[in-house]
């Protein structure tokens, strides 16, 4: 007996905004049942001495230090701007 029904497959497809045919629903039912069967094998493992983890790597957030650097010269910044004045890029007004 399958662990997931055709109706459940169609419901998940609907939630994902996917239009699937009856044949595709049957195919996905078989595939999802195989995935669930494989995942249930993990319940057979003895994990009594295994500490829970949220990530398989021990690496923490690796970030570089913020360093102040010289920016681009104003002339280079406004060089490709379609409209600029006094070192500022001008854009069309959106408020009236």
Mean pLDDT comes to: 90
Q: What is the element string, with H for helices and E for strands?
A: HHHEE
Give the CA-based shape.
elongated
Please work out how many helical segments DSSP would assign.
3
**Radius of gyration using CA atoms only:** 28 Å
Stretches where pLDDT is under 50 for at least 5 consecutive residues are none
What can be said about the biggest beta sheet? 2 strands, antiparallel
Helix fraction bin: 25-40%
Structural class: mainly alpha
Number of strands: 2
Strand order in the largest sheet: 1-2
> What is the percentage of strand-forming residues?
under 5%
Distance between the termini: 66 Å
Summarize the structure.
By secondary structure, the chain is mainly alpha-helical. The protein has helices at about 5-15, 20-40, 75-80, and strands at about 85, 90. The radius of gyration is 28 Å and the shape is elongated.
List the helices and strands and how they pair.
Elements: H1 6-15, H2 22-40, H3 74-78, E1 84-85, E2 88-89
Antiparallel strand pairs: 1-2
């Amino acid at each position: 007996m399958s662990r997931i029904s055709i109706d459940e497959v169609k419901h998940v497809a609907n939630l994902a905004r996917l239009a699937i045919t009856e044949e595709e629903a049957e195919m996905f039912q078989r595939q999802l049942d195989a995935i669930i069967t494989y995942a249930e094998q993990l319940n057979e493992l003895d994990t009594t001495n295994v500490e829970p983890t949220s990530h398989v790597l021990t690496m923490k957030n690796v970030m570089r230090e913020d360093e102040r650097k010289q920016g681009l010269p104003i002339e280079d910044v406004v060089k490709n701007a379609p409209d600029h004045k006094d070192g500022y890029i001008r854009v069309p007004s959106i408020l009236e």
